[in-house]
Amino acid sequence: MRTGATDLPVLKPFRAGPIAPSGLAAPMLLSAGLVAGVALVFAASLAVAQSTGPAARDSAMTILWRWAPLIFQGFLFNLLISFLSMALGTAVGVLFGIGQVSPSAALRRPAWAATQFFRNAPWLVLLFYAMFLLPFELKLGPVTIAFPAWIKAIIGLALPVAANVSEIVRGGIRSIPSGQWESAESLAFNRRQTMWMIILPQAFKRMIPPWMNLYAILTMATTLISVVGIQDGLTVTRAALAAESRPELMLPMYLLLLLMFFAYCYPIARLTIALERRFNVKG
Amino acid sequence: MIAAFFERLNDTQGLNFSIFYDAFDRSRFLTGLWTTTYICVLSILASLVIGLLGVWVAGSGSRFGRLLVRIYVQFFRNTPPLVQLSFFYFAVGGLLPTVSDGFGGQSPLVSGTGWAIIAFSLFAGAFNVEIFRAGIEAVPETMVEAAESLGYTRFQLWRQIVLPLAFRICLPALNNNLVNLVKTTTLAYAIGVPELLYAASQIWSEMFNVREMMNVLLVVYVLLVAVLVWVMHRWEKAMRIPGYMP
Amino acid sequence: MAAKHQLGEPVVVVEGVEKAFGAFPVLKDVSLTIRRGETVCIIGPSGSGKSTLLRCINALVPIGKGSITVAGRQVNDPALDKLALRRDVGIVFQQYNLFPHKTALQNVMMAPIHVLKQDRGEVEERAKQLLAKVGLSHKHDAYPGELSGGQQQRVAIARSLAMNPKVMLFDEVTAALDPETKKEVLVAIRDLAAEGMTCILVTHEMGFAREVADRVYFTDGGVIVEHAPPAEFFGAPREARTRAFLDQVL
C-alpha cells in the first residue's frame, strides 16, 4: 500500500451540494418548507399523543413540557462533550497529519498506520475500548490524575476524530501545489519554516469545511456515550419515557430530541457547503 | 493445534482468547459476525434502492416530491443515527401490533434486527440520494448536447450516456458511504441485536477477558472494513475508463 | 478546389432569423442559403453569433423569429420531429464531446445501432470504413482519453458521418488543437467536402477557408456583413468591417 495517497476511506464531506432546487422554486422556499415539514411531523405526532392518551392523566403537552428542559440539559451535555473531544482530537490529529507528510519514514509510517487504523474502526468500538481499558486513575509520582467516565468518553470519541483530522490535514497539505515548496526552498526557507509559514496558512482554508463536517458527525456521535452508561440527552429521554410509561409519548419525545440535534447540525451543514463553495471559487 | 496454542496462552500468560479454543464462545462470536454481515448486506442493498428512488423522485419535476426528498435527506443526515435507531425501535416499533409467535406467546411485528436494517438503510440511503444526484450533475452538459445532436431520445440518452458516466463518477463517494454503513451497524448493539459487538460483550462479561476481546473486536472490524475497501477498489479499477478522470 | 462538383438544390435555408439570450441579441435578421454539395465557411470575430447559428440549425437552440429549413424540414415548427432532423444534420464540436466510456469504434457505432436501429454487423463494417477514412484504422479499441485532440476530433467526425447526414456542421473544430494536429483534422474535412458532402464550418482558419470553401460568410455583431466566393472575399472585400477584420487576422 502506498503511503502517499491513502486507499482507505474517510468520512469525507462529499462534494455534493444539497439537492439543488431548479427552475422557479427558490432555495429559500425549500428551506422554509423543510423546517415546516419537520415541524409538521412533530406537531402531528404530538397531536396524536394528545388525543389518544388517557383522559384522566396529564396531557401529552404537559408531560413534554415537564421533561423538555431536562432533555435539553442532556443535549447541552452532548454539546459539551463534542467541544472537548473536538479540541483534543484536533490537537492530536494535526500532529499526526503533519507526521504523515514527514520526509522521515520513521515518522511517516507509524502516523499513517495509526491514522488508517483508527479511522476505519467503528466509533462505538473505540469508545468501548477507551471506557474499559483506560485506568480509572493514573499515578504520576505523587500526582494522581483521576479518569472519571466522562473524561474517558471524551478520549474515546477523540480517537476517531484525531484520525480523521489527521487525514484532513494531510489532504490539505497535499493539495498545495509543489511549486510552493520549491519556491520556498529556493528562498532558503527550511522545512519547518516552509510548513508553518507558507504551506499551512494556505492549506488551512481548505481544511475548514471538512473539519466542520467532521464536527457535525462527532456531535451526532456523542449520543454513543449513552450506550456506555453516561447521562446524555438520549439517556434522559429514555429515563423520561420509562418514568411516565406512556407509549403514545414515545414518538413526540424522540422527535423532540432529534429536532434538537437537527436544529444544531443542519445550520453547520449549510455553512460547510457555503464555505466549500466560496473557497472553491477563489481557488 | 490453534485451540491448544490459545489454551496454553491462557494458562501460562493469562491471555484469555476464549473464542479460539472454547467451542461455545467461538460459535457465539461467529453468529455475531454472521449477523453483522447479514445486516450490512441487506442495508447496503436497500440503501442503494432508496438512493435511486430518491434521486428519481427528486428529478421527476414534481415540486412536492422534491420537497419530500429534501426533507428526508436533510433530516437523516443531520440527526444522530443512534437516536434514529432508538426512535424506530422503541417509538415506532412500540406502536405496531404484535403477532402470535406460534408458541402461544406474542412477538413484535418487526424484530430488532429488522429495525436495525430499516434504520441503517434509511440513514445510508439519505447519503446515497445526494451521491447519485451529484454524480448525475457531474456529467458534462456538452456530453448531453453531443448525444442529442446524434438524435438520441431522452431514455437512450440516460441509459447509454448519463447513467454509465454518473455511476463511475459517484463510485468513490458511494464506497465511502458503504464503509461508513458497516461501521454504523455496531449501533445495533444499543437495541440488543446479537451482532458482533453484542456477542463480544456477552463473551467478555462472562469470561472476564475484556482486554483480549476488545482487541480481537477492533482487529476484526478493521479487517472487515479492509475487505470491503479492497473489493470496492477492485471494482472501481475494473470500471475505470482508460484515460478518463472524472 | 472550389465548385468542383455540381451544386444542387438548397439544403439549408435560413431566413430572417433573430435570436436573443435574455435581453442580449445574438443574431439579428440573419439569412443564408446553402446548396447541396456546397462548402461554406462562416468567419468573424468571437461573440458574433456564429456558433449560435449552427446550434439553431439543428435545433439545439430555439430561435426567436424567422425560419430555418433543413432538407425540406421546418426547424422552427413546434411540431418538428427533432430526432429526425438531427439524424439529417451532423455536428462536430470544438471540445470533441466523445463519450469517454466507449472506445473509438463504439463511439462511432452507438448512434446507428441505438438510434437508427441498424444491424450491428453492417454498422461495424461501416464504422471501420469511416475510421479508416479519417486515418484511424489502428485506433479502434482506444478510449477517447487515450487519443490526442486531433485523433478525438477525427473520431467525432466519423461518429457524425455514421448517421449518414445530409449536412455536416463544424463548430470551430480546430480551435482547441495545436498546429500539427490541426492539419490532420482539416485534411479530413477537405476530403469530405471534395466528396460532395454539404458542409458548414465556423472557423478561424483563413487559409483553409480560402482553399476549400465555395463561399465565405462574414458575421459581426449578430449580422451577416457580406458573403462571397473566397477569391473575391479575400482578394477584394467590399465592406470596411470585413477589411478591418481581415487586416487583423491575416
Q: Could you name the key traits of this structure?
A:
heterotrimer, A: 283 residues, mainly alpha, two-stranded antiparallel ribbon, B: 246 residues, 2 strands
Description of the structure:
- The complex is a heterotrimer of chains A (283), B (246) and C (250).
- By secondary structure, chain A is mainly α.
- Chain A contains nine helices and two strands, in the order ααααββααααα.
- Chain A has a two-stranded antiparallel ribbon.
- In chain A, strand 1 and strand 2 form a beta hairpin.
- In chain A, helix 2 packs antiparallel against helix 8 (233-244) and helix 8 runs antiparallel to helix 9 (250-282).
- The longest helix of chain A has 41 residues, at 60-100.
- Chain A starts with 26 loop residues before the first helix and ends with a helix.
- Chain B is mainly α.
- The longest helix of chain B is centred in the N-terminal third of the chain and has 36 residues, at 23-58.
- Helices cover 37% and strands 25% of the residues of chain C.
- Chain C is built from nine helices and ten strands.
- Chain C has helices at residues 50-57, 82-88, 104-114, 120-133, 149-161, 179-194, 206-212, 230-235, 240-249, and strands at 10-21, 24-35, 39-43, 65-70, 73-74, 89-92, 167-171, 198-202, 215-220, 223-228.
- In chain C, strands 6-7-8-3-9-10 form a six-stranded mixed sheet, sandwiched between helices. In chain C, strands 2-1-4-5 form a four-stranded antiparallel sheet, with helices on one face.
- Classes of the chains: A mainly alpha (283), B mainly alpha (246), C alpha/beta (250).
- Chains in contact: A-B, B-C.
- The B-C interface holds B 140, 142-143, 145-153, 156, 160-161, 164-165, 168, 241-245 and C 58, 60, 83-84, 86-87, 89-91, 93, 95, 97-101, 110-111, 114-116, 142-147, 159-160, 163.
Proportion of β residues of chain B?
under 5%
| N/C terminus separation of chain A | 31 Å
Number of helical segments with 4 or more residues of chain A:
9
Q: Name the overall outline of chain A.
A: flat
**pLDDT under 50 segments of chain B (min length 5)?**
none
Binned, the helix content of chain B reads: over 70%
Radius of gyration of chain A: 23 Å
Tally of alpha and pi helices of chain B: 10
Number of strands of chain B: 2
Proportion of residues in β-strands of chain A: under 5%
Mean pLDDT of chain B: 86
Estimated structural class of chain A = mainly alpha
Rounded to the nearest angstrom, the radius of gyration of chain B is 23 Å
Task: State the assembly state of the protein chains.
Answer: heterotrimer
